[in-house]
Amino acid sequence: MSLAADASLAFRVIPSDHARSEAERDRILAGELGFGRYFTDHMVAIQWDAERGWHDAQVRAYGPLALDPAAAVLHYGQEIFEGIKAYRHADGSIWTFRPEANARRLQRSAARLAMPQLPEALFLESLRQLIAIDHGWVPSAPESSLYLRPFMIATEAFLGVRPARAAGYYVIASPAGAYFAKGLAPVSIWLSREYARAAKGGTGAAKCGGNYAASLLPQQEAYANGCSQVLFLDPVEGRYLEELGGMNVFLVYRDGRLVTPALSGSILEGVTRDSILQLARERGMPVEERRVAIDEWIEGVSSGAISEVFACGTAAVVTPIGQLKGKDLAVGDPDAPIGPVTLAIRQALTDIQYGRVADTHGWMVRLR
Ligand SMILES: *Cc1c(COP(=O)(O)O)cnc(C)c1O
């Protein structure tokens, strides 16, 4: 089957017969949105099987999926996902950020999980279709957005261990306020020395649910120690920084350098990470992508050579890290004010995403 045939799949739109009223929707959007708590009235569903390829593209009421209890996803975890936002600009138009990067990453994740590749154009069209019907759910408050969650699951009913021959691709959407409850206040991070989120040769570079499942126990440990996220080290030596459970990490040096762990094969290649690297280079900041030992962080923060640390990802954008905690370890100040570099990078990125400055990179794609 050609990619062109896939991309031109016609969507059948079946409007929900229980969509919330405009008043109800506006009441939800005006309240505390949190993250991933409310969902819009519709979702996208596209089916794939080995014989027909991608087919049966629908926009339909948001609601439960009917899955055979033997569906492969429920047993062997064949699942991948994406995270991308729709932003409302001041003139009411709705945009998204670098969707082709997410489309390509979904394809790489699919390849690693032995799942079918969704054509880039079909990925973009799936977002457009959902926004066409649920655009009223894109909030307009500052720093708010509609978080889009495309995902793919193996649906074939078969318990043999091999790549499934049937899959479903879906997009759901959730209006989002600021990601962290405390807003832009610095967060404390828990250093996990006992657990890794991904193995050498494993699925760390793929955006799959299994990586998150592996991160939840150490995440629980983080909460128990007053931290909101976990920092994972490399799975081989347990010495080098990798990333947080769902965000990449950057160190800012007092001398102006911006340092982030090089992609190792077990680090997820964040679109936010890549965009920050580009913006920093354009601003003339010396940028280093390399291995970073955890001792460099600890010593650098203690000596003052490292002036700021932050995490980044689509959901939380850029989040300052105040303190790194671990067993017999506490470096940094949990109440430190947000550093100027962290703030400037966050501002530069969100200015582009919310259309407050010209998009000189061609990163923004209009959805409506
Ligand atoms: C999604 C994700 C990120 C951030 O990627 P963005 O494209 O910037 O949102 C970082 N790490 C992990 C493990 C992720 O799943």
From TrEMBL:
Q: What is its EC number?
A: 2.6.1.42
Keywords on record: Amino-acid biosynthesis, Aminotransferase, Branched-chain amino acid biosynthesis, Pyridoxal phosphate, Transferase
Q: Provide the cofactor list for this protein.
A: pyridoxal 5'-phosphate
Q: What Pfam families does the record point to?
A: Aminotran_4 (PF01063)
> Pathway, according to UniProt?
Amino-acid biosynthesis; L-valine biosynthesis; L-valine from pyruvate: step 4/4; Amino-acid biosynthesis; L-leucine biosynthesis; L-leucine from 3-methyl-2-oxobutanoate: step 4/4; Amino-acid biosynthesis; L-isoleucine biosynthesis; L-isoleucine from 2-oxobutanoate: step 4/4
Q: Which GO terms describe its biological process?
A: isoleucine biosynthetic process; L-leucine biosynthetic process; L-valine biosynthetic process
Q: Which GO terms describe its molecular function?
A: L-isoleucine-2-oxoglutarate transaminase activity; L-leucine-2-oxoglutarate transaminase activity; L-valine-2-oxoglutarate transaminase activity
Q: Does the keyword Transcription regulation apply?
A: no
What is catalyzed by this enzyme? L-leucine + 2-oxoglutarate = 4-methyl-2-oxopentanoate + L-glutamate; L-valine + 2-oxoglutarate = 3-methyl-2-oxobutanoate + L-glutamate; L-isoleucine + 2-oxoglutarate = (S)-3-methyl-2-oxopentanoate + L-glutamate
Question: Where is the PTM N6-(pyridoxal phosphate)lysine found along the chain?
Answer: K207
Is the Transferase keyword given for this protein? yes
Report the sequence similarity comment from the record: Belongs to the class-IV pyridoxal-phosphate-dependent aminotransferase family.
Which NCBIfam families does the annotation name?
A: ilvE_II (TIGR01123), PRK13357.1 (NF009897)
Function noted in UniProt: Acts on leucine, isoleucine and valine.
**Name of the protein in its database record:** Branched-chain-amino-acid aminotransferase
Q: Organism source for this protein?
A: Thermomonas hydrothermalis
